[in-house]
Amino acid sequence: MNTEKDLRRKYSELLFAKQNEQRYPEQKSYVKKREKIERHEEVQ
Fold first, then answer.
1. Looking at the predicted structure, is the pLDDT value of residue 43 above 90?
2. 17: burial class by Cβ within 10 Å (0-12, 13-18, 19+)?
3. How far is Cα 13 from Cα 9, in angstroms, rounded to an integer?
4. pTM (2 d.p.)
5. What residue numbers bound the domain in which 8 lies?
6. What is the spatial distance between Cα 43 and Cα 12, in angstroms, rounded to a whole number?
7. For residues 18 and 1, which has the higher predicted lDDT (pLDDT)?
8. Could you tell me if residue 44 is inside a domain?
9. How many domains is the chain partitioned into structurally?
């Protein structure tokens, strides 16, 4: 079960990944990271 703290952390990771994806569109690693977060997988 996700705690509020876990959900907050995941949401901030998602926002950070989206921000980097928009800031550096040529870097495909940010797209992959965001997609992983959206699929609820662990990101390293």
1. no
2. buried
3. 6
4. 0.68
5. 4-38
6. 13
7. 18
8. no
9. 1
Six-digit token string for 38: 């959206």
Angstrom distance (rounded) from CA 24 to CA 34 = 13
For 15-23, which contacts have Cβ atoms below 8 Å and span 24 or more sequence positions? none
Helix axes 4-23, 28-38, angle to 10 degrees: 150
Does position 10 have pLDDT exceeding 80, yes or no? Answer: yes
d(CA 16, CA 38): 12
Which tokens hold the place of 16? Answer: 């950070």
25, two tokens: 């569109």
**For residues 18-37, b (16+ Cβ closer than 10 Å) or e, as one string?**
bebbeeeeeeeebeebbeeb
